[in-house]
Design brief:
Aldo/keto reductase, NAD(P)_OxRdtase_dom_sf, alpha/beta, Aldo/ket_reductase_CS, oxidoreductase activity, acting on the CH-OH group of donors, NAD or NADP as acceptor, two-stranded antiparallel sheet, about 270 residues, 10 strands, globular, NADP
């Protein structure tokens, strides 16, 4: 478990990835540049984007203008569904790299398990990894059976499975499988866009610890050893989201939050891809 914003998690290929970062889903360009500069100024070192977000240029600009050395920042992007397939993915990666204005990526992910395509896409990621264009490769939104299928004949095991993860969607089966296979879980929509803040146990813990509902939920993520990338565009919220390392939830409190699970999604169900 990470104990500060600077701490890293060692992935199954030995690469060290920050355990907490900034997501930039659906951020406009100007906001993205400012949010990244704000996050980096306040100690963030993990930035998560995707070709689908259409703000890779702004991400690259924000990183360049931050004044922080490239090798101190961990940058993730993803290949979108209509870019999948082996050759298409190689082209999509080059396009992302061009937009980000970078020489390499730290992590490249398959955004969704598109049926009949994701194994071809994975072959492209393996080539990019072998060619040294990316330091680590992984997947997003893969269910256990997708992972089992991929692991049957892949040459490189995914380092990450980034999934929707919050107290209403605890993904216990997927999490257990990833732990068994040494695939690190990462959470998107960790706050369910505020949809868990009114839960009585969250309200109770806000009172007990003097923290915000977001901080309680993000602390739960971290204590579950899940890398977390909450999205925010405002400086106060960016700082607040990362202010979760000065308290700990008890085992009982962790269990109570986990028991809020409803298998309830804000995004698509991977079974439909």
């Amino acid at each position: 478990m990470i104990s500060s914003l600077k701490d890293t998690v060692t992935l199954n290929n030995g690469v060290k990835m920050p355990g907490f970062g900034l997501g930039v889903y659906k951020m406009d360009d100007d906001i993205t540049v400012e949010a990244i500069q704000t996050a980096i100024k306040n100690g963030y070192r993990l930035i998560d984007t995707a070709s689908y977000y259409k703000n890779e240029e702004a991400v690259g600009k924000g990183i360049k203008e931050s004044g922080i050395s490239r090798d101190e920042i961990f940058i993730t992007s993803k290949v979108w569904n209509d870019q999948q397939g082996c050759e298409n993915t190689l082209q999509a990666f080059d396009e992302s790299l061009r937009k980000l204005d970078l020489d390499y990526l730290d992590l490249y992910l398959v955004h969704w398990p598109v049926s009949g395509k994701y194994k071809e896409t994975w072959r492209a990621l393996e080539k990019l990894y072998a060619d040294g264009k990316v330091r680590a490769i992984g997947v997003c939104n893969f269910q256990t059976y997708h992972l089992e299928d991929l692991l049957k004949d892949c040459k490189v095991k995914p380092v990450i499975n980034q999934v929707e993860y919050h107290p209403h969607l605890t993904q216990e089966e997927v999490k257990a499988f990833c732990e068994k296979e040494d695939i690190q879980m990462e959470a998107w929509a960790p706050l369910k866009r505020g949809g868990v803040f009114d839960e009585p146990v969250i309200v109770e813990l806000v009172e007990k610890y003097g923290k915000t509902p977001a901080q309680i939920v993000l602390r739960w993520d971290i204590q579950n050893n899940v890398i977390t990338i909450p999205k925010s565009a405002t400086e106060s919220r960016i700082i607040e989201n990362a202010d979760i390392f000065d308290f700990s939830l008890t085992d009982e409190e962790m269990t109570r939050i986990g028991s809020l699970n409803k298998d309830e999604r804000t995004g698509p169900n991977p079974d439909d891809y």
